[in-house]
Structures are given as structure tokens and as C-alpha cells.
Amino acid sequence: MLKNHVVGAMSTIGRRPDNTIILDDAAVSGHHACVFRDGDDLVVEDLESTNGTFVNDKRVTRQPLRRGDVIAIGKHTLLVERVSGDAPAGGDAAKGLMSNPGDTIFLDAKKHQALLAMLSDADVFATSSGGSPARIGVLRVVGGDTTPSEYRLEAHTSLIGRSDTALVRLHGWFKPKVAVAIARGADGYVATLMGGKTLINSQPLDGRCKLKDGDVLQVNGLTMEFHLGG
User: Fold this and answer.
1) pLDDT tens track for 122-150
2) Helix and strand tally (H, E) in the chain?
3) Would you say residue 120 lies in a domain?
4) CATH code: domain of residue 180
5) CB of 121 closer than 8 Å to CB of 113
6) Residue 224 sits in which domain range?
């Protein structure tokens, strides 16, 4: 079965139904990997999965992708069909992932569509196809140990976690590599839980949540306020 997945600001891959690409495979972790835009690059990052993420048969933690690269996760393979700068037929410049012909990516359509409907009703998706918001989001640290005390969310996707690529670094071996991913879209900013426990306004973050000016995020001992700049 061949499926095509267009990558916006960020797509998550894993077994749990809140992922963008759902893989029904016991060898796949709940949140296994994410694919996101970093400037003009398309990047895959492993989210401390149990069995690893492979690009062209090499295990990776973070890897820029090129057209024709093959991502292997569990028993599934995904082919990078095009990246920014490629010119597919019809002028569509979106970045895409395609399951390799002959292999199967099982996307539980009913669960995924139900989740999308629920999130849409709650107005928690930031649209990534229409550009970026005019106002830049800022995270201001009000409690916990990190430097600096303010972070501007200028990238398409900003990560909070222990990863070296995270914008907001969490300190400590047992902190999640990626705790939260914040995607910047035309309608604002959306926070996605990737690992560990996160609270927004004292309520557990489960899945995705559109951020509002003044929201308070508590991420593994770090407390931050979200504000939209002028």
C-alpha cells in the first residue's frame, strides 16, 4: 500500500494515535521520530526510540534529508520524495514522504481522522501552509534552571528538551531528549507533547495545543510564559 505524506512545519512518526504518521508496529515507539523543516532543510530526528531510526541503512539521531533518502522505522520504510528546491509536477513545492513501493505503512485512518476532527473542533491546529504569523512568539523563563531567560520562537519548529538541537535545553540525564515541539504556522503556535510530562496552565498537555498569549508551560521542572511579540 502506497501512501504519500506532505511534511509541513513538523510531522511526528510513531505508534500512538496522536502522531502525524501512525505505524501499527510493536517495534515502533509511541513517539519514534519527527521530521521537520530547519530553514530550507528537511530533517529527521530520532526521539530516543527503542529500536532506532535509520537513513539509508545507517542509524541516526539527527539527519538532514535529501531527495531519494530512505528512512527505516521498524518494518516500515519511507522514501523522501522531494525536498525544498525540488520542482514537482504541477508546481507543488511541498516536501513529501512516500512509503516505498512493496512495503506497507499502515495508517489507522479511522483513529487518525477522529483525532484530526477533535483537534480541529478545539481549534488547536496552526496552519503551516499559509506562511508564518506576523508576531514572533517568545518563551520567558520564570522558574527553573536554564540560560538564557528568554527564547524567540523564530524557526518553523522549536524544540524543548535535552537534545543538542533543542532551542530550550533541559539539563539532566533523565530529561527527555525532546519534551515539546512548538510549530510556528500562519494561525499561530502549536505545542506538541513528545516525551515526559508537560503542563499548560496547570493542565496536562496530551497531544497538541494551540498556544495563547500568556499561557504558562511547565516542562520537566522548567516554567515558562508564552507571549506574542508586537
Assistant:
1) 333 333 334 555 689 999 999 987 889 99
2) 1, 22
3) no
4) 2.60.200.20
5) no
6) 137-228
